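hey can u run this one w/ magnesium ion bound, need the structure tokens asap thx
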Amino acid sequence: MELDKMDENDWKYHGEGNKSLVVSHLQHCKVLRLLKFPSEDSAHTRQTAEQAFRHIPNIVDYSKYVMKPLLGEKYVHSGEVVKLPLDFVRQLSLKVQQERPELRCDKVMDTFSGCGLCLPNLTQLPLHHLRDHSPPICVEIKPKCGFLPFSRHITKECKCKVCRFCMHQHYKLANGKWKRLSRYCPLDLFSGSKQRMYVALKNLLEEPQNNLKIFKGGELIFSCKDDAKQQPELNDLIQHLRPYFPHSNSLYNGHQPGKAVLNEFIQVICSALLSGGDSNRSGEPRKVHLSESRPHCEASPFPRDLLRNGNHGLPKDSVLAKILQVQMLDNLDIEGIYPLYKRVEQYLEEFPRERNRLQIDGPYNETFMDTVKNCPSEDDGSVEYAVGKVHQYRVAMTAKDCSVMITFAPCEEDEEHQLNLEKPRFTYSVSILDLDPKPYEGIPHQNKLDTKIVNYYLRSTQAPP
Ligand code: ATP
Ligand code: MG
Ligand code: ZN
Ligand code: MG
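ok here u go:
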């Protein structure tokens, strides 16, 4: 990419989250990720520019030195910091404005810092487009927290029975964030049981909210509708998928062929999620049982009497096992972390200069990673222990908020990296994205939010009729 010849016409709107906006290159398999700010902040341009200036390199370091060693080389692409001409960024911001969904327009794209992140376009398969293939399908899942907390600091029993995602659904519905409850439960997806994973993915398809997006040839073809009342079109999706599963069109003698297509599609996603990235090895991969606590969520719609069936536990090198392992660095729960956060705060009040040494706001380098890895398991009352646990908590929060990208396309004979399915055969790749550091300052908010979600859940589900 020649940075002095950047032309906004080579790029188009690709998507956005709460923190960043992404544009994709029209020819190359690349995207640019740009930060966003609350629109009222944009008045303080110098300050916001400086923020982005520091934040983008921080994001890359955090991915490179912290998340990548924890999640595995093969799944994480850290990308590189690029310095963009301000004129290009301003033109780009104007160009993409009309494509942006209304519910995201409370924030504006950063056009001040000229700093961006260049990443491979994970909705595409590298080199794939060079051949005359069908365009790749990409499934993006934001799985959220896949375990029930087990910390002795927990004061509300329901937190150990109903998962955070399922409780949060009720709160979001009450606050108008969504119009319908999602029946997706992360504990089913992370179970490693094909049956439960199938149900979880089916429920994501029925109510994707911001946990599921599907792309074809790099274009978004399925996601939650901007108008929260409208249901996404499963039938349209089936039409898109049909050519990828020609075999299933003849199944069931034409009865509900759409169902057969969706069924096979879900099987492909499941296999990719359970694969170790290199699927050519034979034999049963070793299973890990990470969850020490109850592995089932009482709010999940999965039938309880079927829980004993099937194969549980995730293959050790699978993307979900990796993510779950990092999520479980949060072993004290916010209720155990908040007092430690206050210990750190008190210490910093007395010794403000220590903030740098303790790497509260980074830099996110090997030393930071050492603190995360070598934090003692028992509280010795020190500020070092408190900082170590707070660092671990923040790392876990990142893993609870990341997304998995599964990109696949039909492949020719003897191509590598095939899913181990009878028919059809796919080339695929699995990656993890959105691995930004979560701010230290966010901990008091997390503490309040936790109380609100739990209290609201208890009131709404246990209130007398
Ligand atoms: P969130 O609100 O989930 O924290 P975010 O603001 O941090 O999101 P991302 O999730 O990184 O932003 O990016 C927003 C969207 O852009 C993603 O959901 C994904 O669809 C798309 N995207 C991001 N990075 C890539 C990539 N490398 N390749 C393809 N698409 C990408
Ligand atoms: Mg995201
Ligand atoms: Zn649940
Ligand atoms: Mg994010």
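The pocket of magnesium ion (ligand 4) is lined by residues 17, 19, 401, 434, 436 (CB under 6 Å). anyway lmk if its weird
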